[in-house]
C-alpha cells in the first residue's frame, strides 16, 4: 500500500513539474506584444452614384485594421463600414499580402451600417467592379499603415452600460413587426478593448455593442436624397477619435448580437397608428441630429469605460480556433426585403435540410473574441458572455461573411421578421450558443 502511495506521489510531482515547465516555456517564447493600427477612407469612385438607391454622401466610409504580434503568432482584425461583405477570401488575400498574417488568423467584418452599399451590389457589373476596387485599395492602405506602425503595446478590457439600443420587435394588429419595444429584451452591456503604447497613449479603442447601425436606414433628406453614411458606427467612432485626436487614436465599432436590436431613435421609423397597424414615418434631415446625438452618447459611454481600464497586459497569448456546428435549415421567403414583407399572424416554416455554421474565436490574452456570420438575437449573445469561462468575452457578428438572422426560439413562435427572414430553423441559435461555450472552455 505504501509503495502505491509513493508511486502516486511521484506521478503527481512529475505531472506538476511538466505543467510548470510547459507554462514557463510558453512564456519564454512569447515576446512583448506589438500592435499596429491603421485606417483609410473608402474613396467612392466618380461615376459610381447613383447606385443601390443612394444618390449622395453624408460622411465617409472607412476600413480600419488592428495587427497584433507576440512573436509566436500574428493576428489581424479588419473593420469595414459596409452593410455586408462578400468575397471574404479575396479580402483576406489583400490583408495577407501586406501583413503576412495567415488567412485563418484574420477576422474581417462589416460594421453593418445600413446606409451604405452592399459589397457587390450596384446597377451593373461596371459599378460592382468600381466599388470592389475602391474597397480593396482602402484595405491595402489601412493594412499598410498598421504594418509600418507596429510598436510595443499593452491591452486591457472593461465593460459598462449604454442605453442606445432597443428591442425592435413590436406586436401590431397584423402580427409582430419592426418598431421599438422598451419592455422587450436588450443587452445594454458595452464591451471596450483598449490598446495603449508603452507611454500610455491610446492606439486603438474597440467598442462592442448590440445595436444595428441603422439610424438613417432608408431615410431620405429634405431634398429627396438617400445618402451614404457610416451611420451610428461612424458617428460613435468619430466622437471617440475627436476626443483622442491629440493621441491619434483609431476607434472601432464591432456589431454585437443585434439581430433584434435597433437604435433607440431612428430617422425613418415604424409607429403604431390608431388601428394598431405599423406605419413608417421619416423625419428627413432631422435624422442627422439623431445621428450626432446617439453617436455622442455611445462614444461618451465608450470613453468612460476606456478611461477606467487599469489592468493592461503586454505579455499575451494570441490564439485562434475554428470549428462549426450543424443546424437545421429552413427555406428563405421569396421576398427578403423589409419593404416586401409584412407582419403576419401565421407562417409555415419549411424544412430545408442541414446547414453548417462556422465559428471562429480569437483569444488575446485574457480577452476572447467570438466571431460568427449570422446576426444573433441579443439574448443569445448576452447568454454567451454571461456563461463564458473567459471573463472578458466579446461576441462579434458579421465576421468573415454575412448570413442574415439567427433568432432565438421565442421569435419563431411569434413569427417575427428575423425568424421568417432566416435560413436557420428554430433552435439553431441555442445550438450555436452551446457550441461556442464548448469552444471557449477549450481556450480557458
Key phrases:
globular, alpha+beta, 9 helices, nine-stranded mixed sheet, 444 residues, four-stranded mixed sheet
Explain how this protein is built.
With 444 residues, the protein is of the alpha+beta class. It has a domain at 34-313. Helix content is 30%, strand content 31%. It is built from 9 helices and 22 strands. The chain has helices at 2-29, 88-99, 125-148, 231-243, 287-307, 378-387, 409-414, 417-420, 428-443; strands at 34-41, 56-57, 62-69, 74-80, 106-110, 151-161, 165-172, 175-181, 189-197, 202-209, 227-228, 250-255, 261-263, 268-272, 278-282, 312-313, 318-330, 351-364, 367-372, 375-376, 392-397, 405-406. The strands form 6 sheets. Strands 1, 3, 4, 5, 6, 9, 10, 12 and 16 form a 9-stranded mixed β-sheet that branches. It has a 4-stranded mixed β-sheet with strand order 17-18-19-21, with helices on one face. β9 and β10 form a beta hairpin. α2 packs parallel to α3 and α4 (231-243) packs across α5 (287-307). The longest helix has 28 residues, at 2-29. Mean pLDDT is 92; it is low at 24-28.
Spatial gap, N to C terminus: 37 Å
E-strand count: 22
Into which percent range does the helicity of residues fall? 25-40%
Shape: globular
Number of helices: 9
Largest sheet: 9 strands, mixed
Q: Which value, in Å, is the CA radius of gyration? A: 23 Å
| Integer average pLDDT | 92
List segments where confidence is low: pLDDT < 50 over at least 5 consecutive residues: 24-28
Beta-strand residue percentage: 25-35%
